[in-house]
Amino acid sequence: xxxxxxxxxxxxxxxxxxxxxxxxxxxxxxxxxxxxxxxxxxxxxxxxxxxxxxxxxxxxxxxxxxxxxxxxxxxxxxxxxxxxxxxxxxxxxxxxxxxxxxxxxxxxxxxxxxxxxxxxxxxxxxxxxxxxxxxxxxxxxxxxxxxxxxxxxxxxxxxxxxxxxxxxxxxxxxxxxxxxxxxxxxxxxxxxxxxxxxxxxxxxxxxxxxxxxxxxxxxxxxxxxxxxxxxxxxxxxxxxxxxxxxxxxxxxxxxxxxxxxxxxxxxxxxxxxxxxxxxxxxxxxxxxxxxxxxxxxxxxxxxxxxxxxxxxxxxxxxxxxxxxxxxxxxxxxxxxxxxxxxxxxxxxxxxxxxxxxxxxx
Amino acid sequence: xxxxxxxxxxxxxxxxxxxxxxxxxxxxxxxxxxxxxxxxxxxxxxxxxxxxxxxxxxxxxxxxxxxxxxxxxxxxxxxxxxxxxxxxxxxxxxxxxxxxxxxxxxxxxxxxxxxxxxxxxxxxxxxxxxxxxxxxxxxxxxxxxxxxxxxxxxxxxxxxxxxxxxxxxxxxxxxxxxxxxxxxxxxxxxxxxxxxxxxxxxxxxxxxxxxxxxxxxxxxxxxxxxxxxxxxxxxxxxxxxxxxxxxxxxxxxxxxxxxxxxxxxxxxxxxxxxxxxxxxxxxxxxxxxxxxxxxxxxxxxxxxxxxxxxxxxxxxxxxxxxxxxxxxxxxxxxxxxxxxxxxxxxxxxxxxxxxxxxxxx
DNA sequence: TTTAGCACTCATTGCCCCCGAGTGCTAAAC
DNA sequence: GTTTAGCACTCGGGGGCAATGAGTGCTAAA
Lengths: 361, 361
Prior knowledge:
The first copy, chain A, is of the alpha+beta class and 361 residues long.
């Protein structure tokens, strides 16, 4: 059943007020608002209705009303007014965005910090690959008598490498042959296409250097399957500033789940259509986040990667404002990544590729 | 003035007790301990002395005593009994150490998590370079008609790379020449040795490809100067479990400074001689950490890198136990890195080198 | 030098009562 | 029929107050 316009108006006023004050809202408070042309008694009646419909809750008999999860949901879906960013706000966001861009991981960790600062809430940032990764080409560079560098260029334009040590000497000719075999046999295939037969075929054509194929393939498979994205979390302390977390037990529970990086709706949100998503209270799967909401926004990184930023806060957060800030930020980030085609935006880029030796026997 | 043995014994007992209970310690409590052969009155007299000497404090007249910062300092330096790890503890630490080892950054973030788990306190982990980095060798790989991959092997055995795009075509011969010029002129030099004269010399010998030298040198300089190490912080929520942070304001202050990764003694600790260091309360420079202590331990990563793990907790933390656990952990980490000679310990290692394109015009 | 004893201090706890914000309901007004 | 004024009722929060008891400091005796 659809709510009457008056009920909606009152519900909206209550949620707005509660977001502002974090105190149960009284009928009188609402009645006194500029464009409320009803007495407090009328409001009371409506509030009683809204309560029995499940949109409001009453901490105790003689207290005002507080929005329920359902109330917030309705508010977020229908009632919320679009928040317009002020010039100052856009300015300060733009300012914050002066990223020293480097490696993607570092960028995301920075982005998290900025989001947290902008919203005054704990924030997280992740970068996730969306499609299957393949190898574009292999190169082998002789480094020493008994070691060489494997350089792999991937379909996302990233370049990975590994130093491989050998128990015996290798010649340039063998490496050339091996490289040719790899480039012919293994490029443009996702990791799930690496069958034993394929491997055997490549080994055959690699001839003298056949023994090296498994080592290389292990490494490459690892690279391509490396989907595990890291969640960058910052600003947890900001939660404590909000009155709903003045209860220590609650604060601790929420903070520890955040610490573990558990945001339940995350994978779903990545594959969802809508850019921005809001999870209100109990819609969060993790029990501990019952009275905590999550707002998240996606953006494109390019190279088959998607980024996602989000904040975590009390159900009573200013959804309109937070959403506006988050979207603006995400849009700009997207644009930035677009323009630069790649996560490393301004030089000199830094590559924190880990050195990796492997003794091959 | 040196304290009498009895005073020391009493002070130790008080600190031990306070660490256990977090409650002011009464003279009677001490008197009842097994090997205290004095009456509570005697203890009281001694406590009065210790108080006027500044080692103890009294929250209010009719309360027991609490160790002061000076008291803790003395305890840590002289009184603390060595804590012996139980078999169970070493077992569980060993178990926790089953690292999926990957890129150094990821390893450190994992290490932080483990330390936090082991100590039940917020923990941080960092990896810092100790010496000056140099380039060991350059390789240039033609990727396309108009792009090539620059591969740089550094003195710490790590290999970095960058995809460079050109506005014009390049030939294999030019690249060979360029590589030779770079290898001859720029290897084994720290970034501060890169003078304009050097650059000019290299450009001269690079001949046709001279235009590329500045781009490459910019990138390399960036690599070598990249000292900024990231501080990995985890487990902040664990602080709230300790009674001294039940005061929200305090908790928030401490947590936010942690959030910002501000641990004051850190650089000093890295260059200090002793492996393990303890900063008690006010010895922390950041104001907010006044009644918070930090225990940290260094270990060697190899390749000219040093690692450091530490925990942050109430001044009333079990220094003996924490120190023991931390050192044990650090030792094993060191051994692990030693054995593997490199941060990437077991395959398939993952290289999160950021893709980086640069248009060169 | 140690200890027993005692007076004194003071944070904590529980209790009671009051206050006032806010409601729900009823009856009158529109 | 809907709105509103009025009023009784509920209940959480805060202030005041006394009792409690843990702990000390000091004195005087062992």
